[in-house]
Amino acid sequence: MTAVQLRTELKKLIDQTNDIGFLEQIKQLLLRPEVDHAAFVEMNRMADLSDEAIAKGEVYTHEEVAEHLRSRRKLK
Fold first, then answer.
1. 17 and 23 in contact (C-beta within 8 Å)?
2. Contact indicator for 70, 62 with CB cutoff of 8 Å
3. How far is 20 from 36, CA to CA, in rounded Å?
4. Distance from C-alpha of 6 to C-alpha of 35, rounded to nearest angstrom
5. Residue 41: how many CB atoms within 10 A of its CB?
6. Which domain covers residue 43, as residue numbers?
7. 15 and 37 in one domain?
8. CA–CA distance, 68 with 20 (Å, rounded to integer)
9. For residues 59 and 53, is the Cβ–Cβ distance under 8 A?
C-alpha cells in the first residue's frame, strides 16, 4: 500500500467516525513529538509479536506460569 492509498483510507475512516473521543486521540497521536511516536511504534511492534506468539501457541497458561513461579521459589 502506498502512502497516498493509506492516507486516503485513513481519511475515509476518519470521515465515517462520529466518536469525538476517538478523533481527539487520533489528533493527539498525530501531534505527538517524534519520541512519543517511536515509543508508540515499538509498543505496536511488541503487540504484533505477542499476537504472532499467541497464534503459534507459544504462550503459557496462567496455571503454568503460577506453577513455574512456585517451583522457582522452592529452589531458593
1. yes
2. no
3. 22
4. 23
5. 10
6. 33-76
7. no
8. 45
9. yes
The residue length of the chain stands at 76
Instruction: Give 5-67 as a 3 state SS string.
Output: HHHHHHHHHHHHCCCHHHHHHHHHHHHCCHHHHHHHHHHHHHHHHHHHHHHHCCCCCHHHHHH
Residue 35 cell numbers, joined: 519520541
pLDDT in tens, 10-67: 999 999 999 999 999 988 888 877 767 788 889 999 999 999 998 999 989 899 999 9
Amino acid at 63: E
Grid coordinates representing 56?
A: 503459534
Does 38 lie in the same domain as 27?
Answer: no
